[in-house]
Amino acid sequence: MRIDHVLKLVLMTAAAMLSANASAAPLQGVARAAGEVPALTEKVWCRYGPCYDNGAGVGGLVGGLIAGAIAAGAATAAAQQEAAAAQQHATSCAQRYRSYDPASNTYAAKDGRRYPCQ
Q: Which residues form the signal peptide (predicted)?
């Protein structure tokens, strides 16, 4: 690509960006009634109608982070309880059966077969 084509492309892009209409600009020319108190915020028109910035995006983000932290804490607590129950089960089976194998959760019976520990 030649340098003059690159320069032309850059200039056209800059011109397009500078000439774009401000679709989110506040309405300035609205006549107010004599006794009306001006609002602290201006109504802003977006692409398809009035836009309102009520902080919902930030609130949603914060709420999502809090909910994620609560869910992660609950999952961790559930995993700890499950591990404790498994350890207690293995200890109980080891006390009942001398031939208990914790890797397979089975014990050897007198008939030579292995059965799962209940």
A: 1-24
